[in-house]
Amino acid sequence: MAQRTEPAGLKLRLAAAQRLKAVLAGEHFAPLGPTELADGRDRALANRLITTALRRQGQINAMLADLLEKGMPAKSGTFEAVLRLSLAQLVFLPDLGAHSALFLAVEAIKRDPKARHLSGLMNAVLRRAQANSARYGLMDEALLLPQTLALGWTAAYGPEAVLRFAEALVDGAPLDLTLRDEDADLVTALGGERLLADTVRLESRDRPVEALPGYDDGRWWVQDAASALPARLLGLPAGSAVLDLCAAPGGKTAQLIKAGYKVTALDSDGSRLERLNANMARLGYAPRVVEADAATFDPATPFDGVLLDAPCSATGTFRRHPEVLWSRSAGDIAGRVRLQRALLANAYRCLVPNGTLIYCVCSLEAAEGEDQVAWALDALPGLTLSPVKSAELPGLDGAVTPKGFVRTHPAITPGEGNAGMDGFFVARFRRTG
């Protein structure tokens, strides 16, 4: 009996559906790699489908409400993920063709024992979507952002900024790199442009990160322009002892070593520390690495400086991780706030008198930023604010607030470029007692 030949494109559709299903269930999005799809073109297409479905999740939610009179079927396996991928293709990726969206969607759920009974529904829903694709393509961009977040961000950053947030969500993020050494020829070879200090931005690329010039030689590391700001603000003399709390995967650790500090990199996750160690080995850096709980770590000798990049809601990273917009609740943020306070209190205990503490989060929420500063100044005796001055971040005047915090977001443009940056909050403290 002849072996059955799978339709072209089905394998990547199945892989994309499994990954999207996991993300919709709460997992962190990671692009499909060579182990899931060996063919680079298939991999690129599958990741394009997934990211489009995630970036357009709010609009697709509205389509589903319009198309499914009885709502999403319960216990239906990959049905929802396949349907979202297909709607993303039909409405937002018309260059991929409508026929393949319908055909492969039905074929994909036929391969799923928990969804195959819904093949007729899948076909009917997608044919209705195809008939209404022009109308769906003109859906309000306000649907791109969850209403609760959009209202809070409008109050905090203004309506024009929030419009830019929606545009940034759809556009995604460019690739930012931090250079290990000054090297104009490398910038040219990368096809990038200087952004701020030692940050280089690649607006587009045609190959994986690992294949870019200088990767194997450890001449740069991936780091968003906003994420590169906190380490630059320590302002301590070379040779100072600095503790990098919650350090993995090591971008800020590398910056601190490059600045000439004696660095201890601490993280509680052994697997993430393996990644940090691999990154440091590639760069030729050798920090002291400690696996411990940042909330209880008790050093024998206190540090001149502590950099705490605290776990947070990560809402500021939505350009690269659009799933965070729909997976964060008020309860999640409240839990993060409690953890951040425990970490701040221990970071304070790890400091010498007159030591410097940098607190930062990749969050756009005041509860994790400005409100935490107010708490720390009230709860930790002898901790004072050391305001950041605009002159410390040339080209980013708009990111320094009147109180001396740093607040970046996708509507703030660094340097001469026209693309924004991640949402980050940074505060600098001094321990006087």
TrEMBL record:
Gene Ontology molecular function: any one: RNA methyltransferase activity
An individual GO BP term: regulation of DNA-templated transcription
Domain SAM-dependent MTase RsmB/NOP-type: 137-432
Top-rank lineage group of the source organism: Bacteria
Ranges in coiled-coil conformation: none
Methyltransferase as UniProt keyword: yes
CDD domains: AdoMet_MTases (cd02440)
Catalytic residue positions: C362 (nucleophile)
Keyword vocabulary terms for this entry: Methyltransferase, RNA-binding, S-adenosyl-L-methionine, Transferase
Segments forming domain Ig-like: 287-374
Sites where the protein binds S-adenosyl-L-methionine: C246, A247, A248, P249, G250, G251, K252, D267, D293, D309
Gene3D superfamilies: NusB-like (1.10.940.10), Vaccinia Virus protein VP39 (3.40.50.150)
Family, as annotated: Belongs to the class I-like SAM-binding methyltransferase superfamily. RsmB/NOP family.
Annotated protein name in UniProt: RsmB/NOP family class I SAM-dependent RNA methyltransferase
